[in-house]
Design brief:
Blueprint lengths: L14 H11 L7 H14 L3 E5 L2 H11 L7 E5 L4 H8 L4 E5 L10 H7 L4 E7 L8 H11 L2 E5 L7 E2 L2 E2 L6 E5 L12 E5 L5 H8 L5 H5 L19 H12 L1 H18 L1 H5 L3 E2 L15 E5 L2 H13 L15 H6 L6 H9 E4 L7 H17 L1
Parallel strand pairs: 2-3, 2-4, 4-5, 5-8
Antiparallel strand pairs: 1-9, 6-7, 8-9, 10-11, 11-12
Helix pairs in contact: 1-9, 2-9, 3-4, 3-7
The protein binds pyridoxal-5'-phosphate.
């Protein structure tokens, strides 16, 4: 058996054809036809109010921080179990980052913890739907309206994922997607800002395009464009948007394949899980419509998890742990007291992610599962 990687990209349709089309048109900078098509695809399919493609999810998070006017002294509540970008975007604007713990049965942010952390200085709650599995959004939105806070969904992993019957990305005031090569739908590097709060749309267009009114100019609403606000260059190149459009056209096929593979892992590993060797991923009923972004197991402890990663590696299977909690990072601890967020720490030390990608073969999954069986038979 050849090496089985954790991720692998899959060209599924018109990627090369659309890129050639863009190259032939000569219009390869941002905000061209493919960008429009991609944005409209999301606005139509998921009823997002306004979508703007960006060069990454990290960029979209930075736009979100600018849009909700984060100032120094503002407090922003963020799960510790996440990627650094979630916190960096707000830190760059001078926010004080307040880390919240995960649930005991799932890496997502614990709503009970959020309320304990809210103060007069709190400006926003940032939620991360880990592995495309929704956070408890009704409770989070209720807290936000009780305390008058913004909610930003870091939905980097959540394309075509649902909370009850609502698409992730449609629930917060703002939300961000990633099209990085490791995500379900990709264009290499890329992202999108979703603006559900209509009041923020106008300024979002300006901030995204170097603080200018160019978007209005292009629509013919004004006769010259100029510098009107702060901003940066957050646009996605048309070459990437062309690639992305091809992937979006294949969305149903990609998602069906991933879900089939996720469910196969879940069924095949159930026996070992029932014997108590590890836990299968917990999915709350409200998150049943998840997008099969990550398949992970929760091992009993760090030692066994690391041994399993090592054992699979010997058999040329790439498996991985996940986030090192941000509250324990050397960067954060330089200026902050050490605190205990026990659930986040538990997931950091026990999660193992298994190879999952659109075109992984059933034989490959069977091989991974047989090796996991071998490992636990020997324990
Ligand atoms: C992938 C990811 C990001 C970063 O996305 P980029 O598009 O690479 O900037 C941010 N947050 C989470 C939760 C992610 O999974």
């Amino acid at each position: 058996m050849n090496k089985i990687p954790l991720h692998q990209i899959h060209l599924i349709g018109n990627e090369q054809h659309y890129i050639n089309q863009t190259l032939q048109s000569g219009l390869i900078s941002g905000d061209g036809l493919f960008t429009k098509q991609c944005q409209e695809y999301f606005e139509k399919k998921y009823h997002f109010k306004k979508c703007l493609l960006t060069s990454s999810c990290t960029d979209a998070l930075e736009m979100a921080a600018l849009l909700i006017n984060i100032q120094s002294e503002d407090e922003v509540i963020i799960p510790s179990f996440t990627f650094p970008s979630t916190a960096n975007a707000f830190l760059l604007q001078g926010a004080k980052i307040i880390f919240a713990d995960s649930n005991s049965n799932h890496p997502n942010i614990d709503v009970v913890e959020i309320e304990k952390l809210i103060t007069k200085k709190t400006k926003a709650i940032i939620v991360v739907h880990y592995a495309g599995v929704a956070c408890d959004m009704d409770s989070i939105m209720a807290l936000a309206s009780k305390y008058n806070l913004f909610v930003v969904e870091d939905a980097a992993q959540c394309i075509d994922s649902f909370y009850k019957d609502k698409p992730l990305g449609s629930l917060g005031h703002l939300a961000t997607f990633s099209f990085h090569a490791t995500k379900n739908i990709t264009c290499g590097e890329g992202g999108m800002l979703i603006i559900n709060d209509e009041k923020l749309i106008h300024r979002a267009e300006i901030i995204r395009d170097k603080g200018t009114s160019k978007a209005q100019f292009i629509r013919g609403e004004i006769d010259k464009y100029e510098w009107v606000d702060i901003g940066s260059s957050f646009l996605m190149s048309e070459i990437s948007a062309a690639f992305l459009m091809a992937q979006l056209e294949s969305m149903n096929e990609i998602q069906a394949l991933r879900k089939e593979k996720w469910n196969y892992y879940f069924r095949q590993l159930n026996t070992l899980s029932e014997k108590g060797y590890f836990k299968l991923p917990f999915v709350p009923a409200f998150a049943n419509g998840h997008n099969a972004h990550i398949f992970y197991l929760e091992c009993k402890n760090e030692k066994e998890r690391n041994a399993l990663i090592g054992f699979l590696k010997q058999h040329h299977i790439q498996a991985a742990f996940h986030y090192q909690p941000l509250h324990l990072s050397s960067f954060y601890l330089k200026n902050n007291q050490k605190e205990n967020l026990l659930n986040a720490e538990k997931f950091a030390s026990t999660i193992i992610r298994l190879p999952l990608f659109t075109n992984i073969k059933t034989e490959e999954i069977d091989f991974v599962i047989s090796k996991i069986n071998d490992f636990f038979r020997a324990v």
